Amino acid sequence: MKFDANIPIYIQIMDYIKKEIVTGRLREGDKVPSVRELASELQINPNTVQRTFQELEREGVLETRRGMGRYVTKEREKIMELKKDMSKDLLTHFIAGMRALGFSEEEIKMLVEISLSKEEKA
Questions:
Q1: Which domain of life, per UniProt (predicted)?
Q2: 9: CB partners within 8 A, 6+ apart
């Protein structure tokens, strides 16, 4: 994983774990790596991973089972809410970027429709 120097590392790791969950690579109830394992894998300070996990627990995305480790929440509604929030963020940035390029709402819709139809044919 390559980190963006302009965004705190723990936020980037949070986003990565959330994406793994909403895409199904990490499923409901799956065990996540330990602080030490993830810190070693990413070559970062364990305190950064600890903060990441604490924030994800605070958000209800991960849960700790005493003596067993951390797991992805089993609350399907929480995962669906997470997916919805992530999609809103993507759309907001996409639309803002398109508007900054001077595209109207109709042009944006048309370009998205064209892009989707090309994707279906591929």
A1: Bacteria
A2: 3, 44, 48
Helix or strand run (H / E) with residue 62: strand 62-65
Tokens of residue 109, six digits: 């819709």
β-pairing, 62-65 vs 69-72, is antiparallel
List, in sequence order, every residue forming a beta bridge with 120; answer none if it has no partner.
none
Residue 23 belongs to domain with CATH number: 1.10.10.10
Do residues 37 and 63 share a domain? yes
Cα 35 to Cα 5, 26, 43, 49, 58, distances in angstroms: 22, 17, 11, 6, 16
Range(s) of the domain holding residue 93: 77-121
> Domain check: are 68 and 47 in the same one?
yes
38's tokens: 């993830």
Residue 99, SS3 per DSSP? helix
Q: CA–CA separation, 72 vs 116, rounded Å?
A: 32
**CA neighbor of 72 nearest in space, from 22, 117, 121, 8:** 22
Give 7-44 pLDDT, tens digit per residue: 999 999 999 999 999 999 999 999 999 999 999 999 99
